[in-house]
Amino acid sequence: MKDATKSKGTLSVASPAEVTLKLTNISKYFSSVPALLDVSTEFFAGEVHAILGENGAGKSTLMNIISGTFQPTQGEIVFQGQAVPQMTPEKAKSLGIAISFQHPAILDDLSVLENVQVALPRTVFTGTSVREDVRAMLDAVGLNVSLHMRADGLTVAQKHLLEIAKALAIKPKILILDEPTASLDQDATDMLFGRIREVVKAGTSVIYITHRLAELRQIAHRVTVLRDGKYRGTGMVNDFSNNDLLALIVGRQLGSTFPPKSPVHSSDVLFSAKSISGKGFKDVSFEATRGQIIGVAGVAGNGQPELMKVLAGLNPFQGAIALAGKPLSRSDLQSKTAFMPSDRHSEGLAAGLTVRENAAFAALGKFASKGIMSRQKEHALVNEAFKSLAVKAPGMEAPILSLSGGNQQKVVMARALLSEPGLIVADEPTQGVDVGARAEIYRILREVSSTGTPVIVNSSDAAELEGLCDKVIVMSRGRVVETLVGADISEARIIAAAVHATTHASENSSQATPKEKPQNWRNWLQSDNAPAVPLALVTILLGLYVQLQNSNFLTSYNIYNILLLATALGFIALGQTVALLLAGIDLSVGPLAGFLVVIASFFINDDKSGAIIFAGFVLMFGAALVVGAINGLLIRFANFTPIAATLAMYIGIQGMSFLLRDSPGGYISATVTDWINWQMGPIPVAFAVLVAVALVAEYVLRKTRKGWELRATGSEEEGARRIGVRINRTFVYGYIASALFTACGAIMLMTQIGVGDPRQGINYTLSSITAVVLGGTSLRGGRGTFIGTLLGAVLITEVLNAVAFLGFTQTYQYLFQGALIVVSALIYLTVRNRALE
Amino acid sequence: MNQAATSTPDVFAQRSFFATPLARSFVTVVVCTLALLVACLIFAPSAVSWGAFSGSLPFAAIIAIVGLGQLLVVQQGGFDLSLPGAVSLAVVTATHEAHQNNGLLFYAVFLSIGFALAAGIANGILIAYFRLNAIIATIGMNALLYAGVFAVCGGTPSITTTLLADIAGGETWRIPNAVLFALAALVLVSFILKKTVVGRRFEAVGANPFAAQATGLRVQTHQLMAYVFAQLLYCMAGILIAGITREPTAFQGDSLLLPSVAVVVLGGTSLLGGRGFPISTVIAAFFLNQLSQFALAIGVPYSAQTIIQALALGFGISVYSIKWTVNLTKKNQTNGGLHE
């Protein structure tokens, strides 16, 4: 098609193959910080093209641009000769670009099968049954797990395999694999390479991101090296020696100066970790003598952040950690360590607090006498700390986020120093920090270290460790692969140790394939619908018990009454279920139901014609639609939290009800009421309709794309976005659905109240939440069941009714209701926690 | 606002008042309230007469007190739906257990404080330690508290003792005592939050539980305390209602839940937790109350008053949500107090 020999840089290689993707002058800025600068390269059909570079070189950014997750600031993407003006995840998918993310876009609340189905277009499933198709996809990557298992039970390695299986399944023209082997063991890696060779033979262009030279030699034909977001060169792998490649990767210009290293070689060990293990790493040992700064190096995601968390006392560990000869427990670490987390925004800073408050909160006791704060003392000490760290801020009372990244980090350091820690653990201390502030941070760390406080720094920047540290441990796949001391510490040595490492994830962490058979009932027990059986049992047993006490309970008259009441609550609770599945909440359902009854009271009367009555029903649903849409739009586009949006709506709708009727009035047509309350034996027909609606809703939730998208969005918004779900639309439709279900409930409520009363309906907000929670839907989103909600509504109504039949007072009505919700919530919580163990 | 950010090494001398979030919410609420009062003076002078104030202020005071309680819970990223039950229980305990006998009043008050402590600790344990979702736990607790209400009063209203009516309904230096109680609660909450080690830690835990945990603060204890102190404030409001209202019903607390959240939000506190603004919350309670008085005085029906309140609430949220856009991430949302 095109002349494919036009590679940039010093290296250029001819190739006869077809160009599938061509990137021209791609740049990407994140709030004026360049992540990619002017990168151009071409990818050929039938080749594995590796992208090589250090952490932060821009590899993942480039892949996110190709797959449409990010929009480039500048540059052009040409796919098979056609320029693509705006790449989106959906567009990429339709072009046949598949990506397996470094952090798999697997939604924990969905089953393995649903994860595959929601991410792939329907056209992929061509076989006799979807299940067989998916089974075949999983077999192709050697993933042997139950299709109905919830994804949160998968190991990290299994999630990676599932992610790769999804990418392979669409038989892509371009397959992007972002560090696919990071968590895989040797067998799984071999299997994966086999698959890659197959798809390449079939003409796919594979883009393979890695840090590991050994892997590169095994699998890649061509390689492009990035450094600091800049293009460094492209060529055939065989034309490069390892040293050539290393030379392209390393050599970053840091531009900041380092303080001199520790001159003393004291032998007294200040801090020691002896074969400590924890989540994500194993058997790590190192010690620090007085004045030493310890560096932790390695390719990102090889256990370093987890090690930092353990040292900060945030994660449990096995092994022995000692400070100045005294062994430390986890809680000792938590109070002794000053931790500077890498994710400043979510773990380091309290965004709502001021600069002063952020600096002070670890050391408040120092500024106080007898528990009362001294403003003077606080200001003086914080000011002093800020001066010594040269913090630049618009003022002590400025919001912390108004500071630059470097100054924010200095505030975190000020907090650490003010708390007079026994140990400083800094995770990526210079990430997002400008050059000038970096030098300051290095200086401060060195000063602290020389006064006898051990400092441990994790950094993905090898040059930084070279300049700063007196000892560096290099980690790979959770183990220490090299310890460098003194003059041996160099960027090249550190990177070489990390990229040459051939260790694979240990057996137990990777392909632990649980036996499938005995898992089946467990999978069911953890499924969303598991609560249905105990709920139904409790409902029946309670009915029988009350019947023994009072033989009027299970008469067809009373059963009819209970079910009729449960129908109104049931419909409204179905609506609430949708909101909760989206990890939101809809407080407006109660007043909305009341408001719709008020509307009905103007139209659905005995003296009105059929047409007007019909118009009344249409208006009810129309009003519900508007209310739901406003809720959804406020939440998605006006940045309201679901509670705030639906609370404002709650009050507003109540006002609307009073606006239409300030006192009860407008009797609902008896004929319509009779029709709606039509009875077949002890069963109200309306209840049968409710059951049918709940079953259909359940089907939609489990078996259709809309349902998977709803749950995916509630489960993890970001993950759902990456697999191409339209989040905003899902939210708005979800809240509309909630309001429409509420309208159905309002029709039932209308026949029960019989008159337009602006004070009615409000209680349904809380009772609908109660019914949904009782039914087993989680307020965290992503997990829930309409059938459970239905049963929850029936059970609540039954309990309230039974209390009267047992001759109990109102006290017990409330007591049972309260106990029911607390106990059931605790049970569901326990089951869920067990499942995760 | 930001020109100071550039150079000077010691910039703390020149403090930029309007840059602080405290100032922003405070200024918003105060400006709105003053504008409302001016509107009252022009269009409805009767709404700002001494008589109108002394009649309506006790109710504003009660909203302010429950608002302060809700504030503490919201600061920890929670949400307290047990407020109606808590207030109602305090009301019926203060009326029924005193049996219109001044001598039994203190017993009744202590009993309601005991109930409040028990409910607060139970909420706190369920939410902070068992990590139950705050909404679920407090819905359940609300029902349990109402069970208590009916156990105490059996559903029939009773009148209070003359002593309590004097204390809660009386006036000191022509100021309704309820207002003095609200001011005392405000001073206490503000002092503890802003001036004591415990309070400052409390705010830090609410603002970012992860950062707080990483520095060794006891996150769960502070979260538990929020629910306990909230219950004590609800209890105070309930006892005042018992004294002010002639014959309080068993559901006296129901109408307070929404206003309590509304004043917290109008006061500028984020429903995602973090920094709390007690003074702004109390002013917001006065504002909402005065808004109703104003509407009443110019002859707006009750319905429209409610709509105006909803609009005020929506307006308040949008004003403050501009600030949120900077750092509002899903992470904050799921990792705050709203866990399950």
Structure description:
The complex is a heterodimer of chains A (about 850) and B (about 350). Chain A is an alpha/beta fold and about 850 residues long. A six-stranded mixed sheet of chain A has the order 6-7-8-3-9-10, with helices on both faces. A six-stranded mixed sheet of chain A has the order 16-19-20-13-21-22, sandwiched between helices. A four-stranded antiparallel sheet of chain A has the order 2-1-4-5, with helices on one face. The radius of gyration of chain A is 32 Å and the shape is globular. Chain B is mainly α. Chain B has a single domain (about 35-320), classed as Orthogonal Bundle (ABC transporter involved in vitamin B12 uptake, BtuC), CATH 1.10.3470. Chain B is about 70% helix and about 0% strand. Chain B is built from 14 helices and two strands, in the order ααααααββαααααααα. Chain B has helices spanning about 20-45, 50-75, 85-95, 105-130, 135-155, 160-170, 175-195, 195-205, 210-215, 220-245, 255-265, 280-295, 300-325, 330-335, and strands spanning about 170, 175. In chain B, strands 1-2 form a two-stranded antiparallel ribbon. In chain B, a hairpin with a 2-residue loop joins strand 1 (about 170) and strand 2. In chain B, helix 12 (about 280-295) packs antiparallel against helix 13. The interface between A and B is large, with 97 and 103 residues.
